[in-house]
Design a protein that fits this description.
about 450 residues, Metallo-beta-lactamase, Chain A
């Protein structure tokens, strides 16, 4: 087998790993590059491999940085099947269509406000392209071996989000395993990731490879920030990822309300995609910790705003409230429109609850940016900018090392991906010091023969 890293290296975005073996090429994950301009422009570059030469795609999970390039690859000639779990398919049916719609909307706004370098600005793919891509999907049960030419592929439930999987690929001699995004153990709603016992080669993520999650009670932290903001007459705006994080925040708010720990102010979930994902969540009781009744009750505490008119009305309410809106890094979606209204008022709080990649608005804000550009116009940042790091769905470096410790023998090679270079280098050093294993941090487009 040979592996080539077409994305997800030295950055937390664009995961794509090409496996070439005798008669077959398969792509593990097919993510969209997000973040700073140089990365986003890779989405428009010619694909490094002829798309029609790829026989199949296998997905670890549904996040857009792992799946969001699929419609573009199909437009460019991919004709194979896309293998994934039932949960991943159901989420992709929501998320890819939303991605296509957002790209159409962003292109429309770029043309309207004239802030694109291209005239006219075009979407990478449309909602119709995304709908077409769903015809290529084939659902696979967890733990079932799928034969793809000379390779055998198995998905193992990993519980990072609904449908998330470890992907194990074998050519009959060697096994190559992919962690995908490795879940943070003891999450509020998702189950703990299981251990892998054996693999010859391992591709492991490193999002939090250079840091530990802060100690503390996320409920207490969230409640304190809400109470402080509401007391000064402000609104709490929470940019949130639609899958996993939004449902965790709703559950936290449900628990705080049960304890009467926060004021009885309106709560809005203003993200059509997050609403659809939340509706889906309770249909997968075996993948999370919530009972059917609590699952239903927790997700009923918010008012769901589906239309643009309902979304705009929130900004005009003139009273303290809690607003959850996509996207999680404030790069697109409805939260950008809300930031234009709330970002310059000192009484308000913008609260981030997930990892913010380099080059995103979220990262700029938590690092103290005093002015941000929204739809081509600069806005002063006067709202309080806060973050809670105890709600992460990613394992920190201690938790990654603990997960690795369950391997019964040393892999021949560990490849560290899906982390900024500092995080990847830090995790590499920690793995080498603790286990003495051979570890590599691949570069973009670098290949390795696995033998």
């Amino acid at each position: 087998m040979k592996i080539t890293f077409l994305g997800g290296v030295e950055e937390v975005t664009g995961s794509k790993y090409l496996i070439d073996n005798q008669d077959i090429k398969i792509l593990v994950d097919c993510g969209l590059f997000q973040g700073h301009r140089e990365l986003r422009e890779r989405n428009w570059d010619p694909f490094p491999v002829e798309p029609s030469s790829i026989h199949a795609i296998v997905l670890t999970h549904a996040h857009i940085d792992h799946t969001g390039y699929i419609p573009a690859l199909i437009k460019r000639g991919f004709k194979g099947k896309i293998y994934c779990s039932r949960g991943t398919y159901e989420l992709c049916a929501i998320m890819l269509l939303d991605s296509g719609s957002l790209q159409e909307e962003d292109a429309k706004k770029a043309n309207k406000y004239g802030y694109s370098r291209h005239s006219p600005a075009l979407p990478l793919y449309t909602k119709k392209d995304a709908e077409n891509s769903l015809k290529f999907f084939q659902v696979v049960d967890f733990d079932k071996v799928v034969s793809l030419g000379s390779l055998k592929v198995t998905l193992i439930a990993s519980y990072h989000i609904l449908g998330a999987s470890f992907v194990v690929v074998s050519d009959g001699k060697e096994t190559l395993s992919f962690s995908g995004d490795l879940g943070h153990p003891n999450q509020l709603i998702m189950k703990n990731p299981p251990a892998l016992k054996q693999t010859d080669f391992l591709v492991v993520e490193s999002t939090y490879g250079d840091r530990l999650h802060k100690e503390g009670d996320p409920l207490q932290a969230l409640g304190d920030m809400i109470n402080k903001t509401i007391a000064r007459g402000g609104t709490v705006v929470i940019p949130s990822f639609a899958v996993g994080r939004t449902q965790t925040i709703l559950y936290c708010l449900y628990l705080l309300k049960q304890k009467n720990a926060i004021p009885n102010v309106p709560i809005f979930l203003d993200s059509p995609m997050a609403i659809s994902v939340t509706d889906l969540f309770c249909r997968f009781p075996n993948e999370h910790k919530l009972s059917p009744q609590i699952c239903q009750d927790a997700f009923e505490i918010a008012t769901y705003t589906r239309t643009v008119e309902e979304s705009k009305a929130i900004d005009q309410m003139g009273q303290p409230l809690i607003l959850i809106a996509g996207s999680g890094m404030a790069e697109g979606g409805r939260v950008v429109d809300h930031l234009k209204y709330f970002i310059s008022e000192p009484k308000n709080t913008i609260l981030f609850v997930g990892f913010q990649s380099r080059g995103t608005r979220g990262r700029d804000l938590i690092e103290g940016e005093k002015e941000i550009k929204l739809h081509g116009k600069l806005y002063p940042v006067r709202a309080e900018i806060k973050s809670i790091e105890t709600i992460s769905a990613h394992a920190d470096y201690n938790e990654i090392l603990e997960w690795l410790s369950h391997l019964e023998s040393a892999p021949k090679k560990v490849f560290i991906t899906h982390g900024e270079i500092e995080a990847a280098q830090s995790l590499k050093k920690k793995i080498e010091e603790r286990f003495g294993w051979s570890v590599d941090i691949p570069h973009y487009l670098e290949s390795f023969d696995l033998d």
